[in-house]
Amino acid sequence: MKQIKYIVLLMIGGIFTSCDSDFLEPIPSSGITSGSYYTTEAEVETGIISIYDALQGVNDNNLNNNHGVQYEFYLTEMRSDNTRTKSQEGEAAQFEFYNVEATNGIVANYYASFYSVIFRANTVLESLGVIADANTAAAFEAEAKFNRAYAYFNLVRLFGDIPLIDKVIPPLDTETQYTRVATSTVYSLIVSDLITAVAGLDNTYKTRASKAAAQAMLAKVYLTIGEYSLAQGLCEDIVGSGFVLQPNFNDIFYNERNSEIIFAIGYESALSADSQNFSAEWMNAVGRTSGVNYVTTDAVTALNDFGGDRTQYSYRIDPFQPSQNQVVKYLPNGESGGADGKTFVSDATLAGNDWIVLRYADVLLMHVEAIMAGGADTSSSNALTSFNMVRNRAGLADDDDGTITKAELLLERRVELAFENHRFFDLVRFGEAESVFSAFSAANGLGYSTSDLLLPIPQREINLSKGIMNQNPGY
C-alpha cells in the first residue's frame, strides 16, 4: 500500500468536508467538491486505496493524525475484562477505570479516523460516473460501500446515535455533519451497503474488501439487530466457500493472509508509511508508550482453564516484569531475533503485523450464535459441528453433553478471539455486558456504570456543532 500515501496529498489539496472534522475549525467559507478530483478509472481506484489508508492509519503518536484501527484496542479490549494498562495513568487508564472523559484525545482520534474512512468512501461513490465499464463501476461501488459499512458499524456500536453522512456534503452543511440520527437508521444504511458489497465482490483479496468479508460482516450486523436466520444463511455460505482453520493457532497471526483470514488491515514492516506501532507498545520498554494493553488476571484465568493450545499463543509473562502478562498474538515480527518468521529490522515500532478484522473461526462461532437465535442454548448438530471445529483445533475435546449454552459460546469466543477487539462487542450483543462489567468493576475497584456502554461524543464535535449536537448520557 505504499502508493496510498500519495492519495493523502491529493486529498489535502482540495476536499475538507464533513467527515474530516479535524480540519473544520474554523468552518471554511468555500470548498471544492469531489467532481474535480477523479476523472479516470485509474484515479478512482487510487481513491479506493485511500480508504484503506485511512483504516490503516498513521504510525505515530500525534493525535492530530488519523490512526485508524491502531487505537481501537483502547476503546474495546481495555473497556472489557480482557486488558488494562500497566501504569494506570493518563488517557489510556480512563478506559480501564470506566471514567472516559469527553475530552479524551484517543476517543476523538478514533471518531475522526473512521469518519475519514466514510468521507473517502463517499468521495469514491460520487465519482463512479467517470468509469465506462459497468462491471468495474459496480465492483468499486461494492468495495467503497463495504468500507463505509465497516466504519459505521464500529461507530454506531461505540457511540450510539451518530451523524449519518452518505454523500459528500458542502463544507457549510453543518446540519448534516452534526445531527445525530437513530441507530436503527444507521443500521439500515449498513445493511444496504453490505448487501451491495456481497453482490458486487469476489474473494480475490484478503486486505481489501471481498464477498466473504461482506457476508461475514453482514452476518455480524444481523446478529446485532436480531436477524438470526439471515445471519445463519450468510455464515453457511462462507463455510462452503473454501476458508479453513489453520492447524497451528500461532500461524493465524504469523503466516499472514492465510486460509483462515477473511479480511485484515494490511501493514508492512520497516517503512513508517506502511507499518504500525501498536504491537510494540503492548510490550515492555519497547514502544513509545509501552505496556498499554496488559492482560487482566480474569482473562489469564479464562485462557489457562479453557484456552487449550491457544493459551501459549495468546499471552505470556512479561520477561522484564514477571507480575505482568503481555498480549502476544501481535508481537512485532522478529521480536526474538527473527524467530517469529519476519523482521522489523531494528525498530519494533515499525512492525508489519496485519490487523485481523474477520477470520473463519469467528464465522464458525457466529454460526452457532445464529442457530441459538438469542436463546439460552442449542443442541443443533450443525451448531455442534461448527463449535467443535474451533475447540478441536485448540486441542480440546468435543462439547461433552451435546448442548451449547450461551455462557459456553461466550467463553469460547473469549478464549478463541482474545485481544482481537471482539470481547466488548460480544458482551453487548449477547446482553451480558451489564452483569459482566458490573461484577468485574466491583472486584477490581473500577467505576463502571450503565452509561459506560457508550463512549462520549468527542467534546470537540460538540463545540463545533454550536448547539446542534448533544452528548451521550453520563458525560
TrEMBL record:
Species of the source: Jejuia spongiicola
Keyword Signal: yes
PROSITE patterns listed in its UniProt record: PROKAR_LIPOPROTEIN (PS51257)
Lineage: Bacteria, Pseudomonadati, Bacteroidota, Flavobacteriia, Flavobacteriales
Pfam families reported in the protein's UniProt record: SusD-like_3, SusD_RagB
Localization (cell): Cell outer membrane
Keyword vocabulary terms for this entry: Cell outer membrane, Membrane, Signal
Name the record gives this protein: RagB/SusD family nutrient uptake outer membrane protein
Start and end residues of each SusD-like N-terminal domain: 58-223
